[in-house]
Amino acid sequence: MPQYEKKIFFDQGALRNTGNPLNVAIDGDGFFQVQTKSGDVFLTRSGDFRLNTNRELVDAAGNRVLSDGGSLTLSSGQGDVFIDDQGQVFQGSTVVGKISVVDVPDKSVLMDVGGAFMIDPSKTVQTQTPKSYHVLQGALEQSNHSVVEGMVNLMDLGRSHESAHTLIRSLEDQSDRMMKVLGNRTA
Questions:
Q1: The dihedral of CA 14, 110, 67, 77: what is its sign?
Q2: In whole angstroms, how large is the CA radius of gyration of the chain?
Q3: Coil, helix or strand at residue 101
Q4: Residues 6+ apart with CB under 8 A from 56
Q5: CA distances (Å), 178 to each of 106, 167, 168, 169, 171, in order?
Q6: Cα distances (Å, whole numbers) of residue 21 to 81, 89, 91, 136, 181
Q7: What φ, ψ does residue 130 adopt, rounded to 5°?
Q8: Of 32, 26, 33, nearest to 12 (Cα)?
Q9: Residue 152: partners with Cβ closer than 8 Å, 6 or more residues away
Q10: Using CA of residue 7, residue 8, residue 9, residue 13, what is the dihedral sign?
Q11: Which of 17, 21, 110, 133 is at 20 to 30 A from 122, Cα to Cα?
Q12: Calpha distance 116→181 (Å, rounded)
């Protein structure tokens, strides 16, 4: 049976307009930085952001979205939120902060932690500013996985399994016939 390994593809997914001012997508390289309640920093391309009860910008899992100066907190009644193409967050005409967008030169140091990534603690790697990116407000990046391609791969896997099963049955039948022939000669 062939062995399959888990692969992570970092190709850009299609961008979908949502109209939600707290949804952001990265067009180009890079990851958003989010911090868990335990203090771990994860990298993610998912910009499905919202406000928690403290009015901090968080991801769908409740992790705080990091800015260059910590977390981003929006005030109630201080105006609409605008996020520019470099991730600078404005509320009305006031600058609130800048969403941290970083890149990792060697993606092999990233460990999948369920929808996000963290840098393998055994590796010494510094994040850097992406070479080319734009933050798009009111949009989300969709999966870079093609459902059709996935189905084709699944069907190929099924055919491979069926072929291997047929081969094993054929070898078992051949072995049984050989045992009968050899058994008849010694009797």
A1: positive
A2: 26
A3: strand
A4: 64, 65, 71, 72, 73
A5: 55, 16, 15, 14, 10
A6: 7, 11, 11, 10, 78
A7: -60, 150
A8: 26
A9: none
A10: positive
A11: 133
A12: 60
Which tokens sit at 49?
Answer: 């952001």
More confident call, 116 vs 50: 50
Record the tokens describing residue 30, joined without a space.
Answer: 């890079």
Rounded to two decimals, the pTM is 0.71
Strands (E), the chain: 15-17, 24-28, 31-35, 41-44, 50-51, 57-58, 64-67, 70-71, 81-83, 88-91, 94-98, 101-102, 110-112, 117-119, 133-137, 139-141
How far is Cα 32 from Cα 47, in angstroms, rounded to an integer? Answer: 8
- H-helix segments, the chain: 147-186
Give which of 108, 132, 130 is closest to 120, Cα–Cα. Answer: 108
And the tokens for 99?
Answer: 């969403």
Q: What six digits make up the tokens of 131?
A: 């070479």
Mean pLDDT of 113-137: 78
In this predicted structure, the answer to whether residue 158 has a pLDDT above a threshold of 80 is no
Q: CB of 90 within 8 A of CB of 83?
A: yes
